[in-house]
User: Fold these one by one.
Assistant:
Number 1:
Amino acid sequence: MLAWAVMADEPAGLAWVVRMTSARETELPEDRAAIDARLFGRMVQGDRDALAELYDRFSRPLYATSLRILNDPSEAQDVVHDVFISLWQKSAQFATERGTAFSWAVTLTRNRSIDRLRSRQRRATLIAESAPTDLGYDEDAGAGGAADQAASGDQALAVRSAVAALPVEQKVALELAFFGGLTQQEIAQRLNEPLGTVKARIRRGLLKLRDTLTRRL
Amino acid sequence: MNDDHFEELAALAAFDLLEGAEKAEFAAMLERDPALRARALALREAGSTLAHVAPAAIPPPELKARILASAAAGVSAPAKSNLIAFPVLLAWAAAACFALVAAWMGELYMGSRAQARALHDEMALAALTLQSARNQMEAEHIIHRQELADAQGQVAEATHRYADSERQITALDQRLKSQGDLANFKISTLASLLGNTPQALAVAVWDPARQQGVLSVSKLPTLAKNQDYQLWVIDPQYPGPVSGGVFAIDPENGTAHVTFKADKLIKTPAKFAVSREAKGGGDSPKGPIVLLSQ
């Protein structure tokens, strides 16, 4: 189930770039979770088409997350490959009571990316490269550039908008917590703030994000 | 239980940031109160949405094919039944072998790619080092070339100044030499010794270095055709006068201006004399002396 959007990223007559937008991101949250759960049910039956559909629904945010953490396309592809194979192999273990399939997939992607990041000898350098102090988009531009907006669905735009509305210090703390691969103490050192302050920022930022998304989605 | 404290632990747990005592405390909280699980789960769900905040990136199309190939090659969905028929078992065994081969190939592929990446990094580093060394050498080359050009300019200037100095020295040397030669010149005036040439006058200048002299006379009387005037240099080292040669005068005014050389080496030109001799002169004076230096 793919919706196709045709965008003219290049000057007229030179090239047309066809980008895919996952239909998942325009669905209602409960529909989204239910469809994901049904795909897992089909995967348990050995239905590889279900895996292909799941890939279409999850691959972009998972790849973007891994790429953001690792800053290496090749390694990010390996991580996404391993995650989908894990989801395929462990599809029978999926239980909606323990969270959504998307949350599970994101957790797997993030953990494996951070494991790779920490295994690198150049860890300190790479963390600095992959954990900048902003969220990767221009704050003044609202919820991202035109290309990103065109390539994202409602869910992604809602999340970006919700994060953009957070106070800067909470935004930075959440980013380092999610993408940085750092411990609490390392985040505090990076921000040059007391540990208690950092914990409070993460708590307040995440609660606000949850509340905003609950209202919007 | 402090609700803020729980939310703080739950928020940190959503990003897997709990360790040690905090992690144990949070687990105990969830164990005691299952209702908290839903709250913790909601925060984890909210945290996972941050995946949408990463800059948009689209995975390459071949990744999907690779995943599906891996799934088809090595993995099947969990079986529902514990009883497996032999043909099915055989198929499973074949699939397992295939999966092992695929896994082995995959490992080889991953290892090769990691090795290639490491080599690529090393090559990039080596290229950077080489480029840096080249830049440094080029900079040093430019500096040295400039220094060499400066030095060559200085040498050329010094050579030019040296040549000027040489020319000045040579000129000074010549001037000094001229002045020295002039100081050594013997200059004598010759006066009439006989009453027959009272108005006659002569000046003789002798250059000892060049062993030659100049005689300038005036108002000497005209001689008979079979006679000549002859100049003599008187040097004490010789017993008699040394001939300086015969000379003719202008018959109209009795003047002459002649360059002369002595027949012998002159060390001390004490006096000069002019005598009247037979035509062609002789080795020693025979006729009367007409002029003699003072």
Note: The helical segments of chain B are 3-14, 20-32, 35-48, 61-74, 86-184.
Number 2:
Amino acid sequence: MESVSFWSSYLLWRDAVVVAVLAGVLCAYLGVFIVLKRMVFVSAALSSISSVGVAVAFLLASVFGVAPHDPPLLLSPRLYALGFAALGAIIFSFNLGHRRISGESAIGLGYIIASALVIVVLNSPRVAQEAHEINDLLYGNAVAQSTAMVWWTAATFVVVLMAHALFRKEFVFVSFDLEMARTLGYRTRLWNIGLFLTFAIAVSVTTQAIGALPVFAFMVVPPAAALLMASRLWSVFALATGIAVFAAAFGYYLSFVWSLPTGATMVVVAAATMIPGLVRLALLRRK
Amino acid sequence: MLIELGQVEVGYHGQAILPPIDLRLAEGAFVGIVGPNGSGKTTIVRTMLGLLPPVRGQVRYPRGERPRIGYVPQREQTDSTWPLTGLEIVLMGRYHRIGVGRRPRPADHKAAGAALAKVGIDDLAHTPFHAMSGGQRQRTLMARALAGEPELLVLDEPTTGMDLVAERAMLDLIADFPQQKIAVLMVSHQLAAVANYVHDLILVDRDRFQVQVGPIEEVLTNERLSKLYNAPVAVADVHGHRSVFIDRPPRGGTPARGLSALNREGAGERAPEREGKGKA
């Protein structure tokens, strides 16, 4: 009965599922790099930093007396989100590791500081009345999507994956063995910045589309599940993106028919896909 | 001439850790960099490779262009969690020839296969790197360096963690490259292993702020080694092989050719008629 009502409400959920699937696939693909580079908190940090951009855009709109619902391009929250995330990505692309503070700790610091800044800015009296709109931009809404968001997500999906299709070899090389790439004359700093900018673009747009938690989860869980199951790089990418499609679509379906929170249900479904890999790992260890 | 170091000081954050180094590396050279752990060997190599800027002085390329360099890092530095096969890793050695945004061509696959065959592991082309033994991983990294058809091969501790047989096989393999006009710069803290292969030696001593560069017969002396390791070290010829011992050579060992005079001055003792505390 419930499934009948789900299928008959096709127009209600079509755009949301399309956005969730596109965002999930994009995040899972990039997540393979993030997991293998051992910097899983980079997506959470970039998401927070892009939120600072949104908060600053609203604050500036308030300062200049511009209506936040229809801002000029120079005060567009989406543009600020992208700009701040790009700036954060460039900083993270440098080797932040130090004898005293690891690179992962530096990323964690970025996350904490950005999260605190968002709270401070959004609680200022100047922007408090825009809270509802800001929340949608900051944390996304996986339940329903506007047509504009479908196009935004689709455009991001195409641009980022085209960049990776073209430069996959270079991105893999500088991620796997930076020093060897440098000895062969690669401008590794630029390639690393390029790779991190693709993370920034994907995170800032998909966070606005489906929310910070699903984005973080899609960047970590499907790649981790795929790495447990597959032993070739191409198959890890294929499996991770396949898991993302399943988790996004089936997670949405379950959330619809059981009235569960959409983003969190997608994350739980994605997490369940780790079970076969964990069983395989346990069996291999027993041998 | 491939690379020239003119009064190059190496170090970090503007602080030199070793005195100025003069070095010229020609085609077919075979140079060892030896010193205790933490003595600055890898810092010299990283400076020559352009991974670290010199504190002072200049790394010059007399031909006007950087030679093709094949770098074999310490294998612990290579991340084995990446699900890459031997062939995929070896192909990386040709990426700079393939060009940005292009896929490897059949000729690149052929060259990578040939490099794997050269180091004797062509049967491991499709084996995941993480499933290989330590020696096989080292050979894979060497094949990657060879796949780029290097003029200079830089090896950082290529025999670390290997058993005696694997170490010997690896060193024999490396010793072939200078005969093929590939210059080799090999970093090792295993002096005894290097002593029988290299033509020139760089002895590095960060604690005493010393670097000695020269043909092995001139540099590998009891006196210099004893100072470097802060222990009585002796060099002896055992069954035609140059061996290095802490304290004194074992019974039957004779001073290595060309080293007799220095041996007498160096450790300061004649080899007694008893088993020494040998350390190879």
Note: Confidence is low (pLDDT under 50) at residues 256-280 of chain B.
